[in-house]
Amino acid sequence: MLAITKAKACTLTDEAGKTYIDGIASWYTCVYGHCNDYIIEKVYAQMQQLDQVVFSGFTHEPAVQLSEALIQILPSNQEKLFFSDNGSTATEIGIKMALQYHFNKGTDRKVLVAFEDAFHGDTFGAMSVSGLSVYNGPFEDYFIEVERIATPTKDNITTILEHLEKRLQQNDIAGFIFEPLIQGAAAMQMHDAGGLDQILALLKQHDVITVADEVMTGFGKTGKYFASDYLNEKPDVMCMSKALTAGLLPMAVTSCTQKVYDAFYSNEISKGLFHGHTYTANPLACTAALAGIELLQSFEIQASIQRVIASHQKFNDEIKDHPKVLTTRQTGTIFALDLNVKMERYGNLRDKLMQHFMDQGVFLRPLGNTIYISAPYVISEAELQQIYDAIKSVLDLV
User: Fold this and answer.
1) How many angstroms separate the CA atoms of 395 and 392, rounded?
2) Spatial separation of the C-alpha atoms in residues 54 and 52, rounded to whole Å
């Protein structure tokens, strides 16, 4: 374990004083750079006013302001927000919304649909809908019922729709949870927005609650505010965390449509969504999130996002035909390549590659033979070039 003592902008510094460019924004969180001065100033001011108060029977200005700001940038069908404290919990709540929606309506639907190789978190509902058994093996006997479909391509979308059309006749599917456009833990595999639209349209015809897990994809990484902005069929529920608070403090939000909300609105207390956390809607986290949204909407950050996108495209042109590069792909600021080398997801060769990057002063975390970049938007061209050079040097090692 390497001890990191300091971080600023795109640079991590260890206890020996060596620096590393954070090429993955510390798991996709610090998108505006580490220790962003604007966010820190806002949170510091809030610390003088209100640090924490239980979000049960109380509310406060940062939560209200953040709610209003989120509703402005979310797809227009999103009407209500439910606060929690991390990405896994955001998806857990989305799953509970889908299941309880039908329970409250008196319909017996207990099956969820999810993509193959999905990853939605480490709590039990989130593990249930995740398909990467390397993480979930010891717990699978305790999972809720989930059926899987392939991610859509032009070649398989007809088969997927035919299967779903037939399967939906049993009238027992409560919800469909999905990572829109990019499956992060599945080595940044990317799929087609058009095919996903067709899946969502079919499921909505059968009152299946659609849950978009935007924990990784949200807040600008795809080139738009949310990956769901590329879809014509908007999800019923959206899950957010990670870059929501710009990496400063943990928090999550699960949003939903008025239709979903109305299924819980009742004089019967048992129909309420019972899910609460001590630090739900913490005022400091809300303040950090609000400052982050202000930055996201700024001309400077939007211009930086487009600059990073263009830089990745240029880099792709340089290396896509290299004999050691099997495939490349990009959505927004996320770029990934697969090495034309067989290796285990967490094997010795993967560890050797990661150490090589660190020796080059670059923090990247290969997923098996996949190398990906998801750097802070504020990264400089020189820092991007250092990442690109480190990747090109790896091609000569494998």
Assistant:
1) 5
2) 7
Strand pairing class (252-256; 325-331): unpaired
Separation between Cα atoms, residue 152 and residue 166, nearest integer Å: 17
Q: Is the dihedral of CA 129, 131, 134, 137 positive or negative?
A: positive
Backbone angles phi, psi at 335, to 5 degrees: -125, 140
DSSP state of 18: -
Identify the CA nearest to 248 among candidates 222, 284, 220. 284
Torsion (CA) 357, 182, 338, 377 in degrees, nearest 10: -30
DSSP letters spanning 316-377: HHHHTT-TTEEEEEEETTEEEEEESS---TTSHHHHHHHHHHHHTTEE---BTTEEEE---T
What DSSP state is assigned to residue 143?
P
What is d(CA 184, CA 241) in angstroms, rounded to the nearest whole number? 14
Indicate the pTM of the whole model: 0.97
As a whole number, mean pLDDT of residues 167-187 equals 97
Q: Is the dihedral of CA 40, 41, 43, 47 positive or negative?
A: positive
Q: What whole-number distance in Å separates Cα of residue 350 and Cα of residue 136?
A: 21
Residues 82 and 63 sit within 8 Å (Cβ to Cβ): no
How high is the pLDDT of residue 385?
98
**Domains of the chain listed by start with CATH number:** 4-35+298-395 (3.90.1150.10), 41-296 (3.40.640.10)
Distance CA 12, CA 8 (A): 7
Q: What is the pLDDT of residues 103-152, one digit of tens each?
A: 999 999 999 999 999 999 999 999 999 987 667 778 888 899 999 999 99
User: 50: which 2 tokens?
Assistant: 């209100």
CB 334 within 8 A of CB 373: yes
Alpha carbons 3 and 15: distance in angstroms, whole number: 6
Give the residue-averaged pLDDT of 57-64: 97
Cα radius of gyration (the chain): 21
Q: Which residues of 66-82 are buried (b: 16+ CB within 10 A; e: fewer)?
A: bbebbeebbbebbebbb
Average pLDDT, the chain: 96
Residue 385 to residues 164, 311, 312, 314, 388: CA-CA distances in angstroms?
A: 45, 9, 10, 11, 5
